[in-house]
Amino acid sequence: MEVGTIQRLPQEIVEGFKGLCTSTIGNVLDDMKIQGVIPNIKPVHHGFSCVGSALTVKEVTGVLGTYTNADFKLGQVIDTTEAGDVVVIDNAGHQVSTWGGIASFAAKNRGVSGLVVDGGVRDLEEIVEFGFPVFSRHVLPISGKGRVKITAMNTVVKIDGVMVSPGDVIVADGTGIVCVPAGVAAEVLKIAREFERQDRMAIEEVKKGLSFSEALKKFAKM
Fold first, then answer.
1. Is 174 annotated as a binding residue?
2. Domains of the chain, with CATH numbers?
């Protein structure tokens, strides 16, 4: 397995994204001409959300028996995580599970913020019981053992068309997922906070009787 390096941003930047909605961040990324919205991967349970530094994983998949259990080095991945990470797995959207209940428990026990997987997960009831935020393309009971090989960790991966580098900021909520490139994260955070301030002002103005069309003109970024 190829193992790259991860440079995590200062905690105050990453945690600054907590409480910001993905819609607002998506607006900022649009203005900056950055493709960061991951469109087709959704929370596996209502209410799941997470923010953290991307720890990336690359996998390949074949039919049962293509790989050995030893090729599925998920334990090594989890043992490498740090508190506040979001594990981001690129399995090219295959309909096979690469994560389950015990992995969720182990990751949460280490302080991992959540999981984003372009592929599948299983043990949904346990994931919900443990309260570990998971965002996945598929939920199905097909094991990755014998079918999946982890080929790289902390290298650039492609998740639903979006390039994710180790250390990028992942923000995921009920609306969807955004990847904020580490190099512009501080700037995105500053602008997103201003956008949300304007949103709050718009709500107050509408409460006072301002029409929605007038609010759209007055607060262009809402």
1. no
2. 2-218 (3.50.30.40)
